[in-house]
Amino acid sequence: MNNLNSVLLEGELIKNPDYQTGGKNSPVCRFTLASNRFFKSDTGIEKETCCLDIEARGKLAAQCYQYGRQGRGARVVGRLKQEHSRTAEGNPLARIVLVAEHIEFRPLMTPEQKQLFRDREDHDMGR
Fold first, then answer.
1. CA dist 8 to 34, 40, 78, Å?
2. Is the terminal CB of the chain with fewer CB neighbours within 10 Å at N or C?
3. Cβ atoms < 10 Å from Cβ of 34
């Protein structure tokens, strides 16, 4: 029986997606999503950012490449996968990748809408 391995992550693409043809000519799209967390501390409001590599395959890969752009918000549902490799010196290397099963992109905003959103966010956080 499989254990539960399900992740929901929201954030913004930190660069444009990379699109390639994978094994068996299956398209693969890779990008990195930055997810921010704000919290109160003794010194005020703190920001913590988590960046996670995302991998989409098949039709979802083509959609990611078409609609994904640096700075665009996205919600990704998928599973975690650990990849193992070795450095040039032969040392073991492991990384975690979120394999996407569903992706929703946020609507594109004009610069004015982005600023209005940031102003509201600052106000809500007490900044």
1. 13, 23, 7
2. N
3. 14
